[in-house]
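Predict the 3D structure for this chain.
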Amino acid sequence: MTVSQDKMLVLSPLFEVKKTPYGGRGCYALAPIAKGSEVLCCKAPLSSSILRSFKKEVCSWCFHYENGSNLKHRAPGVPNNFYFCSAQCADSFVRWDELAVYRSCIDSVEEQYLRVQKKKPTSNVDSSADSSAVTAESVECSWLEVNRWEERLPQKPTKRMNLIPYVDENELLEIKYAVGVLYEMYKRHSKQQDPTGEDSDPEAHPQDENFLSFDLLQSDELLKLQKYPALVESYTRVYQFMRLTVAAELQPLLCTATFRDIIGKNLSNAFGIWSLDAGDKEFFGYSVYPTASYFNHSCCPNLVKTRKGRSLHFTTMEDIPAGAEMYICYGNSGEEDQTVRQKELDEWHFQCQCGKCLSEAQ
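Done. Predicted structure below.
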């Protein structure tokens, strides 16, 4: 479903999302907001993905981490790819995956991931490839070739299995994220079917807020591929792996256009899942909270982001006047040198023009 710009949902009674003077969209206070006010709570991600090396140590539901100890809780009927910090988290996961479609998909993906590790690629992509060679036209040609590959796929399962490509752990992380989005699409589509098989009104489903926001996010596919040309082959290989491994229930939803949209919007909108302990932090994976993706960056932010289990909370760090834009900080502490901060922010494809950066550049 495509949502027009004038159908932007209201994310909070405290701010509005609108175009910024410098391009794109941002969040602006509708009235004065006092310091310490929570302006947005994102109860759950649209999808998340945990690095395989941490799957026994990080709760599959709330992302709790016990300093490297293996988690003890499991759930009946849930395969070994899911570990939980409590019986409550295990029960919540089972209720969310009530038809066992998601766990079936991840189980299949994990099984085939282990199998293809035995057949590493015979040729490696040159990571120093010329980024100027990646154009909108060349990217489209790559995906047209994938479409032709799909048309030639054999029907016999054993022959199809032999075509599953090698993927590495980082690509597996992307696969699990994409499977999560497809599963949420599957659930949403199922709920929108009335008894006669006709779509019901999407606005009648309050849990569609993540999807409405996700639909409006910008895809940074081309910018990312031009920065990292090796990803062209990586993403086409990831798609081929998914086409040959995900469960039958999700196959009708999987096509190159949908996959590219899912991955492209993840590239600049994902939030890292980190340990919550002070000191050195561990990176476990990432999650996508579409309703939180409209906060722009500043090296001197006026909002602080806090994760509590699966939820993200955004709280004001100072009094914010009516009409002022609200900012979070992307990835740095704000205390680094301006050139160091900008190098990190290049991953989001913009040049920071916040007051701190402008004053340091003078």
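Residues 1-7, 197-206 have pLDDT under 50 and may be disordered.
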